[in-house]
Amino acid sequence: MTQTHTALLAALALALPLSAAAQEAEIRKNLAARLPALSQIDEISKTPMPGLFEVRVGHDLLYTDAEGNFLIQGSLFDTRERKNLTEERVEKLTAINFADLPLKNAIKQVRGNGKRKLAVFEDPNCGYCKRFEKDLQNVDNVTVYTFLLPILGADSVEKTKHIWCAKDKLKAWNDWMLRDATPKAANCNTDAITANLELAKKYRITGTPALVFENGTRVPGAINAQQIESMLSR
Q: The whole model's pTM is what?
């Protein structure tokens, strides 16, 4: 083979697109070398936009070109379909299988026929949680599982313990959240509360209230009765 043929073959090889695996490896290598914080990338995948790749680290999404020369942080929109592709992707990534939730560690409340299901992570000292609980009184035919999640300080831990250890957990919870009646001191095994904190860490629940609907959809933050109804009807 002549030197000319060898040079032509080399040029042709460079012109050919990289395989998906090689392209991913190239992006990983370049990003890790230039940005050490991205040395542990969970997934790299093509997006509907030609030449743009999604870089997933946990539930965080970034976008880059085929060589990892540029990095974009923000939302990717499909203007034809009028969809926020980043938002849809995050919803899928953060979805929780309702059947996997340890419901024994939650306070159960049945309203009406209780056919619909909703799980809520709440801190007793969370003002938004109190507002949510008041709105929830206007929603019927639902079973609500409240996972106590004391993340707002020592007083939250104490209140959570007293509510969980009360003879009537639901009454103690509602008395405090709806009527500002301080829960009476009580003691019991609080392994469930510890488990709730671990569960929140696993699913990256960092604020309250955090809602999980039966279809796995998560909603961070308080929503009103009308919005709750809309989500339950999906």
A: 0.73
Task: Name all domains of the chain by residue range, CATH numbers in brackets.
Answer: 3-94 (3.10.450.70), 98-232 (3.40.30.10)
Task: Return the residue matching tokens 């969370």.
Answer: 126
**Of 97, 83, 90, nearest in space to 62 by CA:** 90
Nearest to 177 by CA among 102, 117, 107: 107
Query: What's the CA gap between 92 and 180, in Å, rounded?
Result: 37
Handedness of CA 222, 228, 232, 234 (dihedral sign): negative
Question: pLDDT digits over 21-52, tens only?
Answer: 889 999 999 999 999 999 999 999 999 999 99
CA dihedral 88, 118, 181, 163 (to 10 degrees): -100
117-173 pLDDT, tens digit per residue, is: 999 999 999 999 999 999 999 999 999 999 999 999 999 999 999 999 999 999 999
Residues contacting 31, CB < 8 A, separation 6+? 38, 41, 55, 64, 68, 71
Could you tell me the two tokens for 56?
A: 């997933």
CA–CA separation, 52 vs 46, rounded Å?
6
